[in-house]
Design brief:
- Helix content is about 40%, strand content about 15%.
- Helix 4 runs parallel beside helix 6, helix 9 packs antiparallel against helix 10 and helix 15 packs parallel to helix 16.
- The protein has about 450 residues and is of the alpha/beta class.
- It has one domain: TIM Barrel (Alpha-Beta Barrel).
- An 8-stranded parallel barrel has the order 1-2-3-4-5-7-10-11, surrounded by 6 helices. Strands 6-8-9 form a 3-stranded mixed β-sheet.
- The protein contains 16 helices and 13 strands.
């Protein structure tokens, strides 16, 4: 990289005119109004109501009150010169029972959001499924029940039918490795299921749903770009000892390769032996159904992980060595600040011949921000974002297929199991008053996007 870019004198022009800049949010994390206008319960509403599941027993009932304040927040996006806005549709707001009767109030709500974005010159990028499974479907087995392929297909069709005339960028799913791994294996996210017998069918059904959802969107929205998003971390072994190296390979298969390779037609990685048991849930024709030729993939990276061999973690025989143990810079989530990680994952995913284009659909950091005299000087986040954007540019300049960058996230919100403790926003939210304050990082991004 040039000295200019190394010194974070980044300019929008360095990335080219057709590079997509944006900001991301998710319905469950910002909307609130959990039982308003016919919305049904989601797995996160039920999970967070259980004592001890969420830090400080926080719940998403009110969140950022975006359901009522969306115009104010979209105007802030416009004020910051952000041209693209990634948000998700709430499945239980559209189909309160997960299937059956469509909730007109939910359709009307997202129509208002899409129309208002377009009026303000902001392009909507819509995620169909961002973890808020209707609770009525979880009672029936959720992602472990193959019937979810029918439920999900109906839901995707409804979204395409009502919003496809204006939405030109779709993402079928958000981070399947996380909602399946944390929700159906570790039990630390909704719906709180544990064990390999829940995990394996949920993996396979999520993969099939991405392929099926992609086909529906392409058929019903022929002029749109169809994508999906994957969480990824740059994985390195703790040492060059063969056991640690092999553990890192297994962790990489589990964290990074499982879903991208399945939807790319490569099957499930063989380095983790238990993945071979997914064949129990496969039916004739599934190998073809799993595959879909996405126009782009979203990759979502925050950190790298250092991995050590262990006999105490079943199936992958690997454990993460935390940033604190290694005495390196970390965020409020305990994640290492390591900007080259995003460069490494862009190069890794770019190497798949099936990947046509990469959009960074999430990158950002949580730090303990404070409002002082009406200002939020989040110098650590600003540095984090600048350094990561420089690494994105480095990858782009070396020929990687990266064509966009979205910050996670627009504003502080309900951060899943971390509740309201972890602040990722470039806009500060006072959750008592719902007052919004643009942080220094947000002001910088707005100036940067002016060009």
């Amino acid at each position: 990289m040039s000295a200019d870019i190394e010194n974070n004198n980044l300019k929008k022009a360095h990335f080219g005119d057709d590079f997509a800049w944006g900001v991301s949010v998710a319905a469950q994390q910002i909307e609130g109004s959990a039982d308003v206008d016919g919305r049904g319960e989601s797995v996160w509403d039920v999970f967070s109501a259980k004592k001890g599941k969420i830090l400080n027993n926080d719940t998403p009932e009110i969140a950022c009150d975006y359901y009522n304040r969306y115009r104010e927040d979209i105007l802030l996006i416009k004020k910051l010169n952000i041209p693209n806005y990634r948000f998700s549709i709430s499945w239980p707001r559209i189909l309160p029972k997960g299937m059956g009767t469509v909730n007109k109030a939910g359709i009307d709500y997202y129509n208002r959001i899409i129309d208002f974005c377009l009026e303000q010159g902001i392009e909507p990028w819509v995620t169909v499924y961002h973890w808020d499974l209707p609770y009525e479907l979880e009672i029936r087995g959720g992602w472990t029940n193959r019937e979810i392929l029918n439920w999900f297909s109906d839901y995707v069709r409804i979204c395409a039918q009502h919003f496809g005339d204006r939405v030109k960028h779709w993402m079928v799913m958000n981070e399947p490795a996380v909602f399946v791994g944390a929700g159906y294996f570790l039990g630390i996210h909704a719906p709180g299921r544990t064990g390999i017998r829940n995990f394996l069918p949920a993996v396979h059904h999520a993969v099939l749903a991405m392929g099926i959802g992609g086909r529906i969107l392409r058929e019903m929205c022929p002029d749109a770009e169809i994508g999906t998003t994957f969480s990824c971390s740059y994985i390195e072994p703790y040492s060059q000892n063969k056991r640690d190296v092999d553990a890192a390979i297994r962790a990489d298969a589990f964290i990074n390769r499982l879903f991208i390779e399945a939807v790319s037609g490569m099957g499930y990685p063989t380095e983790v032996k238990v993945f071979s048991e997914i064949k129990e849930f496969m039916k004739p024709g599934d190998a073809e159904l799993m595959k879909f030729d996405f126009d782009f993939i979203g990759i979502q990276n925050y950190t790298r992980e250092i991995v050590k061999s262990t006999i105490f973690v079943p199936y992958i025989g690997a454990k993460l060595v935390k940033a604190k143990e290694r005495k390196v810079a970390e965020t409020a989530m305990g994640w290492e600040v390591y900007p080259p990680a995003i460069y490494e994952v862009i190069k890794k995913f770019s190497a798949y011949p099936e990947v046509k284009k990469i959009i960074i659909t999430e990158n950002g950091a949580a730090f303990p921000d404070m409002v002082i005299d009406g200002e939020v000087d989040d110098a650590q986040r600003l540095e984090y974002l600048q350094q990561h954007m420089a690494q994105v540019l480095k990858a782009k300049n070396e020929g990687a297929k990266v064509a966009g960058y979205f910050i996670w996230c627009l504003m502080d919100n309900f951060e899943w199991a971390e509740g309201y403790h972890a602040r990722f926003g470039i806009i500060h939210v006072d959750f008592e008053t719902q007052k919004r304050t643009i942080k220094s990082s947000g002001k910088w991004y707005g100036e940067f996007l002016k060009g």
